[in-house]
Amino acid sequence: IYIAAGKKEPEGDIERILQVIDTKQLGKKPRVSHTVKSRELFTGSAKKFNPKRMLLVGNTGMGKTYISKELQRTWAEGKTNRYECIIYLTFQELNLIEYNISINELLETSCESLSSVLTLRNVNLLIILDGLDEFKCKLNLDDQSLRSDVDTPLPISDLVSKLITKELLPNVDIMVTASWNVINNLEKYFTCMCVIQEFDDKQIKQYFDYICEDKYKSKSICDLIKKDNVSHFASVPLYSFMLHQIMKNVVITSESSVKNLNTSSKFLIQFLKSCSESILKDRKSVHESPAKDMNPEDIVRQLGKLSYKILLSGQLIVYAEVLKIYCLNEKILTECFPSFFYKKRSSDNSFEYRHPAINEMFAAFYCACIIRDNELKECLDAWVRGIIPQNVKSKLLFDVPIHHRLQLENFTRLFMGFLSTGNDKSLQSDSATLKDTTREKLIEWFQGLQWKDLHPNECLNLLHCIFELQDPVVTQKVSAYMKNIRLFNKPLSAIDVQALRFSLKGSKLEELDLRFCELGDKDIYIYIYIYIKSNKQAVITDLKLWSNKLSEKSGEILSEILHTPQCVIEVLSVSPARIVVRGAAALDARAPQRPPHDLCLTVGNNHLGPAGVRCLWKALESNQTLKTLHVHDNDINDESIETLVQSLTQNTTLKELFLCMNDFSKDGLKKFKELRSDLKVVQKI
């Protein structure tokens, strides 16, 4: 009853779409997946969906917790016919358990009112474990040494590990929610991944129609999103919520302050400014000794100091008795910062952050305000790379364990964005810039990184750090050092694509690996096309675009890129994107106009079909740069082979042709040998 009667979240009745991926298909082409509405995941047509271990994946602010609670509410309201009970636990709660505990004891203490039901062997149960990226313990997934049952007390890290690997409760469904950056090598333990999709333009409008008081306000926000080109932020529910709060106070905060919301840190700092205006209105009523003379910036910095301490502890709980240590009190949290903190129950003497990003925001602002230039390298090495010296010098690292497992990616990005604001020491300034000395220290640190050897997660995080800084000098000097950017198998959001575009300005890349990045036509246009067209010195020698969501439109975009004078792409691999007939024709029609560099073109494992490949063959007649062509698995038949033979009579540069997994006869292959003895034709691998 408590769950079913709970307050609804601000997303209203907007259906969240999940992409369900069979983990056995990860790394294969094509990747098998389908979409389902979040509320129908275990009901209706999706009730045959029969996983035992599920990953619910989404970046910060995508609504993992919202969807988890929505599933629990659906059960509480009696709308699911799959589960007799859904139990919701957070990794924040599990972080508090510092003693050995059995799974039976955990379930009984977490759900005391349901303990009698949970002891039944045949109960149909779903356990949701929310927020793996907030778990401060190390998982021991490969350790099979300790055998256990449901009554065996275990350290909490071992208990969670055994739940994931099915050593405990193998017949119980378990869903774990996590961000992309923490699921490396976890997929093999799960039956499927449910990836939360971003809001599309229609859902953005639905969201603001629901949350705004009237249609006029909704329209004004949607117009702002379109005018200022911030749909990539509005596609994330958390940022849409913040944008609504900011616009509610636009009269107070001034319209100019909402025109440059182009980074996460700017969104959050403007959200903080707009929501904390009540401090300026009623300062005396909320202050108790010894905080009588504190100004809003001081209060925020004290909240930041407290938040940084809490961030390092791996928890999101603020206890009332601790507030006094930081010259704060309960009234400040309840009356001035209700958008940031809440009491879980009225009888509690503790508060929780409404979202982990709120905790990270306060902590990052505090660190940006007090850090000294000579501490930057030590702190960034610790926060970003996990490198902590035995004898730390910065007091910001005194409470950071040497082998910490804290996920600080979002905190670090916000810290970068707040460095200029922190240097200014004022929340009211919209024009603060980096100090010259700070800028030089940052450039030195970025240039010292071995970009070629970075893991995709670390590489993307660093690109975001540059994006959040929004400093043209840092971007120019650091991007010149980038030669290899490898984001293989790292799904990129719309915000990620914007960060990629900004942070690589002026770079001369030898390799850009974007395979398995879930890129669509719009992403290719925003990043690759605009990036090259707007950079006179842009160079990408080796561009890999395999296994994305590219259609014929991307073929046209890539043809424009090849036509651009400053483009020096020598190796272009786009398999297995879905570039079909018209796109393939446009792509290769442009190739002869490129600078004279050897080109390897891969369009394998697509759906070009006979008509599509004929467009490729026709382009070979005038192309004098292509040396290797991959067209495996494209439904090529004998009719297409006849056309190819004709085209090759006018082509002398092609040296390798990969035709594996197509539908043609041996007689078709024989014609190649008769025509071009120097041409290496690969039919089988």
Automatic annotation (TrEMBL):
The keyword Nucleotide-binding applies. SUPFAM superfamilies: P-loop containing nucleoside triphosphate hydrolases, RNI-like. Residues 52-179 form the NACHT domain. One of its GO terms (molecular function) is ATP binding. The keyword Nucleotide-binding applies. Keywords: ATP-binding, Leucine-rich repeat, Nucleotide-binding, Repeat. Gene3D superfamilies: P-loop containing nucleotide triphosphate hydrolases, Ribonuclease Inhibitor. InterPro entries: Leu-rich_rpt (IPR001611), LRR_dom_sf (IPR032675), NACHT_NTPase (IPR007111), NLR (IPR051261), NLRP_HD2 (IPR041267), P-loop_NTPase (IPR027417). This is NACHT domain-containing protein. It comes from Latimeria chalumnae.
